[in-house]
Specification:
about 350 residues, mainly beta, 3 domains, 9-stranded antiparallel β-sheet, 5-stranded antiparallel β-sheet, 4 helices, about 10% helix, elongated, binds calcium ion
């Protein structure tokens, strides 16, 4: 069995057998929820059945997290994360010093405009660190731990719905120190009061779909030629900042199209970074958005089978969202499905 698989199994067993102190912890055999089971299966090499098998001595295998030295020796693998939402409060050795920390989420009545607000906490011995989120109690959320950047110490990830379908993501080191996101002109929420610097932000607009091959998969809104939900992968870089791995937000809206209202210029898109030959889209053509970089380009296919990219510039006056060849985007399409 690969070392990576053993480590992952160890983490699962640690959560199941030794750690969690909620009501489920008093039961002899905690049952994985459907959601939890789904998270466990995110890593393709992990055998879901094996993760549920008992071990005779939890201490013998529950050695997660490992040191970075061991990782280098064993040629370890891509990072991973699992959900602990259904196992709170959860006892787990986040920083690899052999002593468990307690991860929990609590609510504070009236903390957020009279409503209860979630607070994430990590207890290490007698010390407790907390982080107040901008998420109201009762809104959907999820919480994950895992050593995504493979430095031997776990990260903690959280997403919650701050309003209706208005998700935000936080990431922290094991001591609840925020991990910042790279600046992204249109998709990072920056809040000066939250200590972001150089445009980097401790909070990101989107919803964590899961973790895959050491990457965070985030679904987020792209407001360009309408409101679209796209998926993009992110990772923790060598500089400790979370930035995009994939260059675009990919849409999964196969049947959603825009109808061209007047001629406009598009470009061939064989090379993503280098627009190809110009061609004209004519009135009545159906344009199916495929992907966007969120800041200048929208890739598409047409009902007639053409593919290409539209070049857009943000409207500096703020009167409209985007312009194409200097004219407002809305002039070129019969209807743009913006929401919110
Ligand atoms: Ca520890
Ligand atoms: Ca780490």
């Amino acid at each position: 069995m690969k070392r990576s698989t053993l480590l992952f199994i160890s983490l699962c067993l640690l959560l199941l057998l030794s750690g969690c102190q909620g009501a489920a912890a008093n039961e002899a055999a905690p049952v994985l929820s459907d959601q939890r089971a789904q998270e466990v299966q995110i890593r393709p090499e992990a055998d879901a059945a094996a993760t549920l098998a008992p071990v005779s001595s939890p201490g013998s295998e529950a050695s997660w997290p490992v040191t970075s030295t061991e990782q280098e020796e064993e040629d370890l693998p891509l990072g991973y994360c699992i959900s602990i939402r259904d196992n709170l409060p959860c006892s787990i050795d986040l920083d690899g010093d052999g002593e468990p920390e307690i991860v929990d989420m609590t609510t504070q009545p009236g903390a957020l405009d009279g409503c209860p607000r979630w607070t994430v906490s990590v207890k290490k011995g007698a010390q407790e660190r907390t982080f107040q989120t901008d998420i109201l109690e009762d809104m959907p959320f999820d919480l994950w731990v895992g050593d995504l950047d493979e430095d031997g110490s776990a990260e903690i990830f959280f997403h919650g719905d701050a309003a209706s379908d208005d998700y935000i993501v936080y990431a922290w080191r094991s001591d609840l120190t925020p991990i910042l996101f790279e600046p992204d002109d249109r998709l990072v929420r920056t809040d000066p009061d939250e200590g972001g610097s150089d445009g980097k932000s401790p909070v990101f607009s989107g919803y964590i779909e899961g973790f895959e091959d050491g990457h965070i998969v985030i679904e987020g809104v792209v407001d360009m030629l309408g409101t679209h939900w796209g998926v993009r992968t992110f990772a923790i870089g060598d500089d400790g900042i979370i930035g995009p791995v994939s260059s675009v937000w990919s849409f999964e809206e196969d049947d959603r199209y825009l109808t061209v209202a007047q001629e406009l210029t598009a470009y061939g898109a064989k090379v993503a970074r280098d627009p190809g030959e110009a061609f004209t889209l004519t009135a009545g053509e159906k344009v199916y958005p495929l992907a966007s970089d969120g800041c200048a380009r929208m890739w598409f296919k047409t009902g007639g089978g053409k593919t290409g990219v539209l070049l857009l510039t943000p409207d500096e006056d703020g009167m409209v969202m985007w312009r194409i060849d200097g004219a407002p985007e809305a002039e070129f399409f019969e209807f743009l499905p913006y929401s919110g």
